[in-house]
Amino acid sequence: MRHSAKVRVKKPMKKMIFSLGIYVGIIFCILILAYKYVNPAPPKKIVIMTGDGEGDYLHYAKAYKKIIQDENIDLVIKESSGTMANLKALQDPSSDADVGFVIDGLASSEQDPDLVSLGSLYYEPIWIFYRGLKEISRLNDLKGLRIAIGQTGGGTEALAVRLLEASGVNSKNTHFLELGWDASAAALRAKQVDVAFFVATPEDPEVEELMNDHSIRLMSMAQADAIIKHLPYLHHLQLPQGAMNLSKNLPEKNVDLVAATTTLVAKDDFHPALIYLLLKAATEVHREPGIFEKKNEFPTEKDYELPLADAAKQFYKSGAPFWQRYFPFWFATLVDRFILVIFPLLVMIYPTAKLIPRFFQRRTKNKILQRYGELKFLETQISKEKTLEKYQEQLFQLDEIESRVNAMKVPLDFAEHVYVLREHIDFVRRSLKRSLEIDRGGAN
Q1: How crowded is residue 311: how many other Cβ atoms within 10 Å of its Cβ?
Q2: Domain containing 303 — which CATH number?
Q3: 82, 155 in Cβ contact below 8 A?
Q4: For 253-287, what is each residue's pLDDT tens digit?
Q5: Among 40, 117, 255, 436, whose Cα sits 20 to 30 Å from the Cα of 207?
Q6: Does any domain span residue 37?
């Protein structure tokens, strides 16, 4: 009785295409996910924190905006009360602030581990104006006087307190008044305070107005070199005679000042492509020389308190990436993402892809070996049971093996093996028929 059923075998080519399709689909999904999440496209918006009114921070932010908008990136300007408010916004996880102007030295990697520096932009001298005929050149000479140190929570207040405390002047032995810029200037003119601290660029009109007031003097800091040793984020600058106003000879002699730098500070997850874009804009705005700045001195890495962002390090080392120098921002970021993500993935995938042909060759070889195994097993059964019915069943099984071999679609490299297998099948068939004829002859 012929009870063996013919085994249905899927066509190898279809299986190959199906397997290859799955492989390609997986690779494609990996590439898409990597492209989207490993190095995502930069946002279309940057939120920058500035200062209040029409100060330097706001002025420079508007200059950046004019440059950046040409790259179809929206720079959203948010005004604040200044450095400390900007730091608070950047430290707040729920805030949408990305970057802000901060006076160097008022943030630190210990207190602000999630913030990075994009570099310093320009000097902001600390101007100390005072009343009286007696010349004052050291901070400890201010002990016991009425000092306007800036508004509460502002950058001026923070720097003034640090400078004064380093010289032994504090709220216990001196009267500190927390007044804003305008209030401090007015109080100084009205003789309501003896000293007032201001942090501003030389271009600020209020600085020149105070220097024009003959009843008010600008302090030249005799200990400037010593101060920057104790507070290394500050810099010793010299304001040359006549630098503020040559015709009026303001100042009348060289003045030693200490200065902080204004720094761009960002959240540590700020997109690298946007860092490059911002620093390109900052370079265009701040590269020109000033009273204290040399040409192309800024922006630079003068921030000693916060770590410099990796993208900023690369910018100061070799400038913007090649693609951003010569192509539109959107295209440059597209290429950068491909180079940084897709290309390495393709490099990793290539060796794997080379294994695909080997995989299918192994499968084909296994199928041929499987048929050989079936043939060998059948051959061993021929001499065991020598009945006519058994011979016929074995011939039928042999025909099934041959049908499966004929149904196989194999690469040309394996065609020779298939032909040899067919010859072996014929050899077994001839042996089986000979045995059947011999047995029949013996039975007669």
Answers
A1: 21
A2: 3.40.190.10
A3: yes
A4: 999 999 999 999 999 999 888 998 999 999 999 99
A5: 117
A6: no
